[in-house]
């Protein structure tokens, strides 16, 4: 059985992403929640600052989110759970910080943040825990952004099976789709036919997920949230570089002029795993 503190920890983190008003969750917000509303929702100063960091991160405002996320890490550093063990809260916020750093093109710093977080989370929850898998995906993306493709690919390949089999992830989760797309992008340098096959199947899976989302909305269900839409954009950006030579050229031009994305056009990072824990399936 998982210790009770883990449940409390994750609810604390994920409530920041899901406790906004229903109207905000039902549409992709065009801008972060006003600070005045956040103060009403989270009257405690620390919680308000943490919620602001999550809100900014969810909206793709990576630079603005960074200071709030660093504050959250400082606030949770050294905390113990009811069993006297180190609380995982700090490492969860570290993962969110890594997302913001990757979104700004600060890949080396993101890599440094992620490695100790992965080690501690893996010791605590095991290699196939969804948070461990999310962090490993971010590490692969960060290494890829650093140009360390040969280091990134084994990590991405190793977690694909875990993502597919995880009950809170699965083959249709956006983190899984991003991981598949990243693997296809790596394979482009190794075997173009394998890369295109993987890219095409991933694109078809993405289109299926988006079609299901539209059907759900038509039936009165929720719309995709902003992080999910941004993740979908990122998947498309990765896949375009495999399936569309012109997109690959544009991505290279973009990288030459700016380091604001992981081998995808800037719009993909005005777009990054929920990516990971911001998706509804993570709640």
Write a short abstract of this structure.
By secondary structure, this protein is an all-alpha fold.
What does this entry look like structurally?
It is a single chain. With 283 residues, the protein is an all-alpha fold. The chain is built from 14 helices and no strands. The chain has helices spanning 4-18, 22-25, 35-41, 45-58, 62-76, 89-103, 107-125, 130-146, 149-165, 174-187, 192-218, 226-243, 245-257, 266-269. Helix 7 (107-125) runs antiparallel to helix 8 and helix 11 (192-218) packs antiparallel against helix 12.
SSE map:
Layout: H1 4-18, H2 22-25, H3 35-41, H4 45-58, H5 62-76, H6 89-103, H7 107-125, H8 130-146, H9 149-165, H10 174-187, H11 192-218, H12 226-243, H13 245-257, H14 266-269
Helix pairs in contact: 3-4, 4-5, 5-6, 6-7, 6-8, 7-8, 8-9, 8-10, 9-10, 10-11, 10-12, 11-12, 12-13
Unreliable residue stretches: 1-31, 35-43, 254-283
Shape label:
globular
Main pleated sheet:
none
* Cα gyration radius (Å): 18 Å
Structural class: mainly alpha
């Amino acid at each position: 059985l998982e210790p009770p503190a883990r449940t409390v920890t994750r609810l604390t983190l994920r409530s920041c992403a899901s406790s906004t008003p229903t109207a905000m969750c039902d549409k992709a917000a065009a801008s972060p929640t006003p600070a005045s509303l956040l103060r009403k929702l989270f009257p405690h100063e620390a919680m308000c600052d943490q919620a602001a960091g999550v809100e900014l991160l969810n909206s793709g405002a990576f630079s603005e989110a960074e200071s709030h996320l660093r504050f959250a890490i400082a606030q949770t550093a050294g905390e113990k759970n009811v069993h006297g063990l180190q609380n995982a809260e700090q490492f969860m916020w570290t993962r969110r910080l890594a997302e913001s750093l990757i979104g700004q093109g600060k890949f080396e710093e993101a890599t440094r943040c992620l490695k100790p977080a992965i080690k501690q989370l893996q010791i605590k929850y095991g290699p196939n825990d969804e948070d461990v898998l999310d962090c490993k995906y971010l590490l692969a993306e960060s290494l890829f952004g650093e140009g360390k493709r040969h280091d990134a690919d084994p990590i991405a390949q190793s977690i694909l099976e875990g993502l597919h089999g995880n009950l809170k992830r699965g083959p249709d989760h956006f983190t899984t789709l991003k991981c598949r797309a990243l693997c296809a992008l790596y394979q482009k340098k190794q075997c173009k036919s394998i890369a295109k096959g993987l890219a095409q199947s991933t694109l078809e899976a993405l289109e299926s997920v988006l079609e299901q989302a539209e059907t759900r909305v038509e039936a009165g269900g929720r719309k995709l949230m902003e992080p999910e839409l941004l993740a979908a954009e990122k998947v498309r950006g990765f896949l375009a570089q495999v399936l569309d030579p012109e997109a690959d050229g544009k991505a290279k031009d973009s990288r030459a002029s700016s380091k604001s994305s992981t081998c995808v056009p800037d719009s993909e990072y005005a777009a990054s795993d929920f990516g990971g824990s911001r998706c509804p399936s993570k709640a």
